[in-house]
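Sample entry (130 residues):
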Amino acid sequence: SFTMFGDLFEEDYSSVSNYQYGKEKKLKTKTLEPPAPREFTNLSGIRNQGGTCYLNSLLQTLHFTPEFREALFSLGPEELGSFEDKDKPDAKVRIIPLQLQRLFAQLLVLDQDAASTADLTDSFGWTSNE
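Predicted structure, serialized as tokens:
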């Protein structure tokens, strides 16, 4: 099985929030529906976590820079390690580029109107307050 991108097709909605007009509403995991499909543009955006619009702009710019995207995807388990080894004590796993690969793969492959950056910002060590 191909595990380079971890659980790319298994979305974890346990920490999904809905930021609307500065108010955070926790969504119940039981009532969540699948993400909306891409529109006629066939492009996928990036969901705002409440203050990540500048980060999202940078990520979209990097995603649409073919040289950067190709270089990122050319890195394999030899250079980055794998998601499966991230909790092993002696494993050398470069989780930030792995999460960036995963996000870019979601933007390219999954039929959803927006992808989440929660796993990527978690890999930075950021909390929801940051």
